Amino acid sequence: MTLFLNGDALTIEDIKQLLHQDLKIEITEEALERVKKSRSVVERIINDKETIYGITTGFGLFSDVRIDSTQYNDLQVNLIRSHACGMGEPFSEEVSLVMMILRLNTLLKGNSGVTLELVDQLKYFINERIIPVIPQQGSLGASGDLAPLSHLALALIGEGLVYFKNEEVDSRYVLNELGRAPLHLQAKEGLALINGTQAMTAQGVINYIEAEDLGYQAEWIAALTHQALNGIVDAYDHRVHAVRNSQEQVDVAARMRDWLADSKLTTRQAEIRVQDAYSLRCIPQIHGASYQVFNYVKEKLEFEMNASNDNPLIFDEDGETTVISGGNFHGQPIAFALDHLKLGVSELANVSERRVERLVNPQLNNGLPAFLSPEPGLQSGAMIMQYAAASLVSENKTLAHPASVDSIPSSANQEDHVSMGTIASRHGYQMIENARRVIAIECIIALQAVELKGVNQLSPKTRDKYDEFRNIVPSIKQDRQFHKDIEAVAQYLKDSAYH
């Protein structure tokens, strides 16, 4: 299968398919024509010796410095080398691959003035899965993700490191092995590669995909907990949720009813108690609110995935060409969205930990052994798993602080307000990893609790999940190193993403 890029219609679903099915990409002829047309404008600027930012001038504070015409190409290479100041652990290969796809897609809008050779080099790297090694730290999220995207550009010109066939190697070595020439940057092309929000947006896309998937996984795990605690199903009645005017809440309630259908462990109002605690009764309201956040973030990400966020931008309308210096590289809209995503993820973990507490606390767990211990007193059982969940939830609360409220001026105060959106994206992913482990802990404990209640009484759908996950984590017959179980379940949950 092939994914066609045209600069206007890329979706998160396209990205999911590309990652899961290993799709190749092609470029529409219409998009290639736009690229050629915008490049002709750059060539005219060079020939007419006009003063245009980043083409015939320096960058940032040096925007008033005129560059000699013999050095236009050197200017672009110097830009990439000097701006490749990324630090820390690299982005995942998935994120770096998505980063290339997003950068290519924005260039295809025809506002950036790049050559067909650059477009073809990006397409080649994507299709051959030559993935740049891109350090995560170093971007302010305005003037573009300059440092991360410079490392991407280094790979294209044969000077950076790449992942290729499960190895980390020099880009030039890979290009030599494949008989492919490094890209020779021409006027404006270095700037066109790094002025944009593709690092924060690429990580944001992966965050969204995994966060949405985590939400769905949290529902069936919560359904296990609900049954272990003989929860009341009346709270999920469609009528309750229809009058709240939240489709996401309605949808969660419907899925919870589906997960719990035909269970012999659920109860009705007043059979055991009149109302459940909020962590059970309000699952549709709490989880539904997270899906509201996710839907908002998806919309903003897909806008940005198909946006021109270069500078300067080239416009050709009715035969008249204009080059305008603006600020579409500023990451504020994505920074806000990705900070918002952190809240939705945080609450999935917060309420999961509260359900864990109800499962292990003998004052709250409806007759189950304290900490589900096989020998209370001699063996601690799930006691410290709740501690671990509480620790992760608390850590997420610190990471949830919005990165987007911070700004530090740069480039001698020329760039005096920045978004910090890439920090928001990175912290968001850390929170997803933490939340997944919290939900894994709830899964392990809920599996044990329903085993004690009687797995034959589970709803058919959750019984299938019980059987599936008992292949990952065995029953707790005695104390063991539970960190291995937590990591095994968390990894299994992660590996099932994108479905």
From TrEMBL:
Entry GO MF terms: histidine ammonia-lyase activity
EC number: 4.3.1.3
Catalytic activity: L-histidine = trans-urocanate + NH4(+)
Keyword annotations from UniProtKB, A to Z: Cytoplasm, Histidine metabolism, Lyase
Principal subcellular localisation of the protein: cytoplasm
Class of the enzyme per the UniProt entry, highest EC level: lyase
Post-translational modification: Contains an active site 4-methylidene-imidazol-5-one (MIO), which is formed autocatalytically by cyclization and dehydration of residues Ala-Ser-Gly.
Crosslinked residue numbers (5-imidazolinone (Ala-Gly)): A142-G144
GO biological process: L-histidine catabolic process to glutamate and formamide; L-histidine catabolic process to glutamate and formate
Subcellular location: Cytoplasm
Record pathway: Amino-acid degradation; L-histidine degradation into L-glutamate; N-formimidoyl-L-glutamate from L-histidine: step 1/3
Chain positions with 2,3-didehydroalanine (Ser) modification: S143
Domain of life: Bacteria
Annotated GO CC locations: cytoplasm
Pfam families on file: Lyase_aromatic
Family: Belongs to the PAL/histidase family.
PANTHER family in the record: HISTIDINE AMMONIA-LYASE (PTHR10362)
NCBIfam families: hutH (TIGR01225), PRK09367.1 (NF006871)
Protein's UniProt name: Histidine ammonia-lyase
Species annotation: Staphylococcus warneri
Lineage: Bacteria, Bacillati, Bacillota, Bacilli, Bacillales
